[in-house]
From TrEMBL:
Gene Ontology cellular-component terms listed: extracellular space
Group of enzyme by EC: hydrolase
Main location: secreted
Protein name: trypsin
The encoding gene: LOC113057530
Leader peptide range in chain numbering: 1-19
Taxon lineage: Eukaryota, Metazoa, Chordata, Craniata, Vertebrata
Region of interest (Disordered), residue spans: 109-129
Biological processes, Gene Ontology terms: plasminogen activation; regulation of cell adhesion mediated by integrin
Organism listed in the record: Carassius auratus (Goldfish)
Subcellular location(s) of the protein: Secreted, Extracellular space
Length: 398
């Protein structure tokens, strides 16, 4: 009798345990499904978890420390997130997690409804749609203001491994214009170690909705740039970019191309233009800015630049000077390669590449910029894009 009683008590205990576990397990499962941002559309039916390179995706919640919104995504299936051309996932590569596109036939691709692109992802900027932007300033490049990337959508951030190197400017879907001195090894540069980001608001944060990441497939440093002389003459370089599937930049509110002005065109002295970058934001500072910043600078005459502030040996015909009001705005270390753009008829034209200067925002020491319009032919020769370098959007005189 005692034995039968013990069996009945044990059976009741087991039943009680099972009935308390089941709701908790179901609740967790339901909660995960309801809160995983990746699974808000029919695409959640896709259970592919292998990339085009044959690597297995890691579970999304592994990166929840960096991306808190992934914490309830307890699966490793490929998903469309951000303005990517096809579903992707994270894979482990050495000590890092990197993005790779997934091995999914085109007919199986379905767009997500949680993070829709701001424009048709198949469209790219052309020579007739460059220089357009959606202004969205928040309020330093030194003395400037914090900016959102919508205000400078052509801004590129160049990294070597995990370290930020220089800025750059998107001038065509597959091409970035930057400074030669950003690549001190010249032709010996190991471009596979470098990557380029567009649509980046902060160099130490990642926004998968806005950003597009690329490898460098080709580096062209101006053949007459002299690394030994350190005179910054011909301080210009081109980067050809492509993502892991071979695609170039997609046009969105956060990624656009800047227009090129016509050959040897220059604006009058005193004209105000904009510079942008992620560089140092304090005089004597040693840290890069966390966020993209921009400032207004005024063009200085070539005569004043060469005689009043510098010498003809320091500033030649391939350079020009610009400075902020009361000498309070300027580019600084870390801004190299970034844009100096000027607005005409609501269109932004790239006139300068941030090159060099003596200290930062120091009175009577203006910033010095590579004069882009001296290099239209050189850019056309190496990119094969004569329509982009013709400056067709530049206002014509009557």
């Amino acid at each position: 009798m005692k034995c039968i009683l013990r069996i009945l008590l044990l059976a009741c205990a087991l039943y009680f345990i099972e009935t308390t576990k089941s709701p908790r397990r179901e609740y967790t499962s339901t909660k995960v499904k309801d809160n995983c941002i990746l699974d808000g559309s029919e695409e959640s039916k896709n259970e592919v978890s292998v990339t085009v390179r044959g690597r297995t995706c890691v579970s999304w919640n592994i990166l929840s420390r960096k991306y808190p919104s992934f914490r309830n995504c307890n699966h490793n299936y490929c998903r469309s997130l951000g303005n990517k051309i096809q579903p992707w996932c994270f894979v482990r590569k050495g000590n890092y997690y990197v993005r790779e596109y997934c091995d999914i036939p085109l007919k199986e691709m379905k767009p997500t409804t949680t993070s829709p692109p701001t424009s048709d992802p198949t469209k790219q900027d052309t020579e007739s749609t460059c220089g357009e932007r959606r202004l969205n300033r928040i309020t330093k490049i030194i003395g400037g203001s914090r900016s959102t990337v919508e205000s400078q959508p052509w801004m590129a951030a160049i990294f070597k491994g995990e370290g930020f190197v220089c800025g750059g400017t998107l001038i065509a879907p597959c091409w970035i214009l930057t400074a030669a001195h950003c690549f001190p090894d010249g032709k010996r540069t190991r471009i596979m170690k470098y990557s380029v980001y567009l649509g980046k608001n902060a160099i130490n944060e990642t926004d998968t909705v806005k950003e597009q990441q690329f490898n460098i497939s080709k580096l062209v440093v101006h053949e007459d740039y002299n690394y030994k002389a350190e005179d910054f003459n011909n301080d210009i370089a081109l980067l050809k970019i492509a993502d892991s599937s071979g695609q170039c930049a997609v046009r969105t509110d956060y990624v656009r191309t800047a227009c090129l002005p016509p050959f040897q065109q220059m604006l009058p002295t005193g004209f105000y233009c904009e510079i942008a970058g992620y560089g140092r934001h304090q005089k004597g500072g040693f840290k890069y800015s966390r966020y993209l910043k921009q400032a207004q600078v005024r063009l200085i005459s070539q005569n004043a630049c060469q005689k009043k502030y510098y010498s003809k040996d320091e500033v030649n015909e391939n350079m020009f000077c610009a400075a902020g009001r009361e000498w309070e705005e300027d580019a600084c270390q870390g801004d190299s390669g970034g844009p100096l753009v000027c607005e005409l008829n609501n269109t932004m034209f790239l006139f300068g590449i941030i090159s060099w200067g003596k200290e930062c925002a120091k009175k009577f020491n203006p910033g010095v910029y590579t004069k882009v319009t001296n290099y239209n032919n050189w850019i056309s020769q190496h990119t094969g894009l004569p329509k982009y370098t013709a400056g067709s959007r530049y206002p014509q005189k009557d």
